[in-house]
Design brief:
single chain; 362 residues; mainly alpha; Catalytic domain of cyclic nucleotide phosphodiesterase 4b2b; 0% strand; globular; binds zinc ion; PDEase_catalytic_dom_sf
Length: 362
């Protein structure tokens, strides 16, 4: 039986090596308390619950944790859904997988481990706080957590279009279709295979995992946004709109959730949302530098000289964020709130963020 205590004892060394990137005093305090109370079950449970409350929150700040803490928090989500016991997942194998995931994410401004974990934590909030977990089996929750954390694995920090325009090896390998997403899926399977996390699954379970997780990661290609919205719309217009039991329905709901979480940072509290927006702008500017150098058309509204003008970057970022909200995020979140009313409060954040961005644009 995998318990809170046994998991924490296993990862005790995480707390010993405290290489802080950025530190939130409250968080450090919580981790050192857990470390000191590893032998005291009651205190440990209380601290674990405190951690889970934080992870359930829409207002969670993803910028104040070390990479090791991210691994530890992912383990806590597994524990919350009792996935070790329910699916017979080996603690050490999962840990090995998570270390490889951490190492596979590049240090890009935006597409990095923190973004991957942010998507996973947002998913956890939808599941555990907004009660979306009632629609899924433990196996499907496992698929959701692993797919979210893996959805940008080994991302090179440039877009699909850039890879195609520059005839990158990956673009050739995947026939120019969802190039990055194919790469993320393939990397995820390699890491799962190496760490043997799902090696004990039956052939049927393995097939199902592959089907649901690859669909979920393909759903994060923005090119597939309209088709996801159309699929969701037609499901909600059907007389089966409240029933999510068939494999097709489950797959649709998994795709919708992973895609939504991937684009949800524009709907987070403004300071968090603004930080994400500036990070993606940095990555766009890096790409603009490369495009200018190679002599291909610029993909975004950033030029390489923008990197020296912070006022200009902020204004362009504000315009991009509002456009992104209006085109992708808001219509999708409105549709989701129609089907799942518990998610409705998220829409308020979007309205506040738009007002904040308008002030910057004017
Ligand atoms: Zn992503």
């Amino acid at each position: 039986m995998i318990s809170i205590k046994s998991t924490f004892v296993n990862f005790n060394h995480i707390f010993q090596s405290k290489k802080k990137i950025k530190s939130d005093p409250k968080e450090i305090n919580l981790f050192s308390k857990i470390n000191n109370n590893i032998t005291n079950n009651t205190k440990l449970t209380m601290l674990y619950e405190q951690l889970i409350q934080g992870l359930k929150s829409w207002e969670y700040n993803p910028f104040v944790q070390t990479e090791q803490e991210i691994i530890y928090k992912f383990q806590s989500m597994f524990l919350y859904y009792d996935l070790y016991n329910e699916l017979n997942i080996n603690v050490d194998r999962l840990y090995e997988f998570l270390i490889m995931v951490k190492d596979s994410y590049h240090k890009n401004p935006y597409h990095n481990l923190i973004h991957a974990f942010d998507v996973t934590q947002t998913l956890f909030c939808y599941l555990a706080n907004m009660k979306m977990d009632q629609y899924f089996s433990k196996f499907e929750i496992f698929v959701l957590l692993i797919s979210s954390l893996s959805h940008d694995l080994s991302h090179p920090g440039v877009s699909n279009n850039f890879l195609i325009q520059t005839s990158n090896e990956l673009a050739k390998q995947y026939n120019q279709i969802s190039v990055l997403e194919n790469h993320h899926i393939s990397t995820m399977y390699k890491l799962l295979h190496k760490s043997k996390v799902i090696s004990h699954f039956t052939p049927k379970q393995k097939k199902l995992f592959k089907y649901l997780s690859s669909n979920a990661i393909f759903a994060t290609d923005l090119c597939n946004h309209n088709s996801i919205v159309e699929r969701l719309q037609s499901k909600l217009n059907s007389d089966q709109c409240n029933i999510w039991s068939s494999l097709a329905d489950k797959s649709l709901l998994i795709d919708v959730l992973v895609h939504t979480c991937d684009i949800s940072n524009v709907a987070k509290p403004f300071q968090v949302s603004k930080e994400w927006t500036m990070l993606i702008s940095n990555e766009f500017i890096q790409q603009a530098h490369m495009e200018k150098k190679i002599g291909i058309p610029l993909s975004y509204n950033f030029d390489d000289h923008d990197s020296t003008n912070s006022e200009e970057i902020l204004k362009k970022s504000a315009v991009n964020s509002v456009n992104f909200i209006n085109t992708f995020c808001e219509p999708l979140l409105q549709l989701i709130s129609r089907a799942f009313p518990e998610t409705t409060p998220v829409l308020d954040y979007i309205e506040i963020n738009k007002l904040n961005w308008y002030e910057i644009i004017e």
